[in-house]
TrEMBL record:
Residues 141-370 form the Sigma-54 factor interaction domain. It comes from Pseudoalteromonas marina. Pfam families: AAA_lid_14, HTH_8, Response_reg, Sigma54_activat. The keyword Transcription regulation applies. The keyword Electron transport does not apply. The lineage of its organism: Bacteria, Pseudomonadati, Pseudomonadota, Gammaproteobacteria, Alteromonadales. Residues 4-117 form the Response regulatory domain. SUPFAM superfamilies: CheY-like (SSF52172), Homeodomain-like (SSF46689), P-loop containing nucleoside triphosphate hydrolases (SSF52540). InterPro entries: AAA+_ATPase, AAA_lid_NorR, CheY-like_superfamily, Homeodomain-like_sf, HTH_Fis, P-loop_NTPase, Sig_transdc_resp-reg_receiver, Sigma_54_int. The modification 4-aspartylphosphate is found at D53. PANTHER family: PTS-DEPENDENT DIHYDROXYACETONE KINASE OPERON REGULATORY PROTEIN-RELATED, TRANSCRIPTIONAL REGULATORY PROTEIN. SMART domains: AAA (SM00382), REC (SM00448). This is Sigma-54 dependent transcriptional regulator.
Amino acid sequence: MPPTVLIVEDTQSLAMMYQSYLLPTGVNTLVASDGQTAMDIINKVHPDLIVLDVMLPDMNGLDILATLEPDNSPQVVVLTGHATKEMAIQAIKLGASDFLEKPIEADRFRITVNNALKIKNLKQTVTQYKNKYENGKYFDLIGSSKQMQSVYQIISSASASKATVFITGESGTGKELCARAVHQASNRANKPFVALNCAAIPKDLIESEIFGHLKGAFTGAIANRVGAAGQANGGTLFLDELCEMDINLQSKLLRFIQTGSYQQVGSEKEVKVDVRFVCATNKDPLIEVENGRFREDLYYRLHVIPIELPPLRARGTDIIEIAEALFVKLALEENHPYKSISEGVKQLLMQYSWPGNVRQLENVIRNVLVLHPEQYIDTDMIPALPVSTKTQAQHTPIITEQPVSTETPAFDMATSQSEVKPLWLAEKEYIEHVIKICVSNVPKAASLLDVSPSTLYRKIKSWEELE
């Protein structure tokens, strides 16, 4: 819908001229010849921009400007044939975005109006984002860290688009909550959000789950079924663990994404729907493509707006924000008299690496609430937290600082050709040594090595596969 511009000008010939200036821009224009008419239009129509003459027959134009609410007001460009420096300063102080002196050339007029409308759009975007993001929470996502701020910004920027969102991240990082936030931030928020876990459905049933089937299409099809694609019409279809989808079905999904049309199992009739796709995986999709388990053309079709959710261990004090929110939420579910957690508990939660991410944190909190009916949660109530098997460490309550070993590391420089090791092995030994001196704290090791934690976890996984 094009923006609406109200021209407040008592000289009819000038008002018509300003309207003609704006014809090429495609905006809607309204005209008011006096202040009271202008205020009536403003209250009823809520224009995006007001081109406001100062000298009106019934009032000063700046008086109209002063009545506008600062939080939800249109942009205002002030016009006058008797400009003074003091008047310009007063207009800007009252909230005008620009000040033009008559007579005005057409190009200058159009550029000024266009710039003011751009500022209006930007303000609306910022306001929408602030309304959605309050007190460290963006819809159901929680966290004030820079990593999550970046995620929120991407979701907010992509909200008005139909472009496919591809979410990656370790298991338990909240990929479905992120997908729901994409849906809730969009203009499809009042339409269905349909989630389908591709890993949880048997291979021979997933096509029916996505596209639906007709009665009698296969053994057990005792009635017609719409399928997730049909259920999500007008809304969002979330395909979780997409890389687990059978390679043969991926071609049908690709065609569905390209055309918006599909066939139910057992039917030759084309069904067309309006669906936005959000996909997620806890695997590296490019590795899956290289290994032939995921179609390259499907990957590039889906990988339009990528969102990488950071692991919990890399999110700093988000751990405390999430834990406190989960304690409140789960206490209500368990009818628990929870009040607060101690500073010691906060320190323990911050020190742990959380290999299972938010899902593991939630399970630990439920364990605490079920086993301890006290209002105040202290450190002795927190169960032993296992260290990830990736670090080959024993189960221990919480990682504590240990003195750095002064032993000579195993990656001494080679002194002869026979001592030269393959590059990957030398890298492996060095990284493992750094992780060891960081007391198995992979994010800290990554920081020292100037790489992202995900890079180290990917390397550790590849070494495990080689072994």
